[in-house]
Amino acid sequence: MADKVEFELVSPEKLLVSQPVHMVVVPGAEGFLGVLPGHAPMIVTVKPGIIDIYANDMGTITQRIFVAGGFCEITGARVTILAEEASDLEAVRGLDRAALEKQLADLSEDLADAKSEGERHTLEGKVAIVQAKLDAQVGTMH
Predict the structure, then answer these.
(1) What element of type H or E holds 44?
(2) What are phi and psi of 42, to 5 degrees?
(3) pLDDT digit string (tens) for 88-117?
(4) Helix 97-112 to helix 117-138 angle, to the nearest 10 degrees?
(5) Cβ contacts of 50 within 8 Å, gap of 6 or more
(6) Sign (positive or negative) of CA dihedral 121, 126, 132, 134
(7) DSSP reduced 3-state for 31
(8) Backbone conformation region of residue 136, classed left if phi is above 0, alpha if psi is from -120 to 50, else beta
(9) How far is Cα 64 from Cα 93, in angstroms, rounded to an integer?
(10) Is 109 exposed, middle or buried (0-12, 13-18, 19+ CB in 10 A)?
(11) Which one, of 87, 77, 86, lies nearest residue 21 by Cα?
């Protein structure tokens, strides 16, 4: 078994990361998923949250990236995340907290007034992204 897994993170704009890593922790819809070399193949939904990248086996996170959701394909040798939106965690922490809180309040009002299931689903996704950004700012996420 190899001691690294190839990790790729792709956003709609570009390939953000492509490197061999020791482990990746992905915020999956069913919970956080740690992926090491030789992992069982699967495809999972990624929820808004933080991806932790461990470049070596020292147990230290070497990079943290905020994702707004997407899909993750895992094979024994590769982890590929197709993210709806992705940015360095420090960029998210630099966002205006008051503006995010206002956006969350506005979206919550819109959600309460949603007229259809489709509209409700879309707004719930937007609320989850803004809430995850707020959580990332204060370090309450993984």
Answers:
(1) strand 42-46
(2) -170, 165
(3) 888 888 889 999 999 999 999 999 998 999
(4) 160
(5) 27, 64, 65, 66, 67, 89, 136, 141, 142
(6) negative
(7) strand
(8) alpha
(9) 12
(10) exposed
(11) 77
Phi, psi of 68 (to 5 degrees): -95, 15
């630099």: which residue's tokens?
94
Both structure tokens of 50: 């933080």
34-59 confidence digits (pLDDT tens): 999 999 999 999 999 999 999 887 78
52 CB-side CA count, 13 A: 16
**Distances, alpha carbon 5 to alpha carbons 73, 86, 100, in Å:** 12, 20, 35
| Token pair 């309460």 in the structure block, residue | 112
Question: How many CB atoms within 10 Å of residue 5?
Answer: 21
Picking from 128, 123, 125, the residue whose alpha carbon sits closest to that of residue 107 is: 123
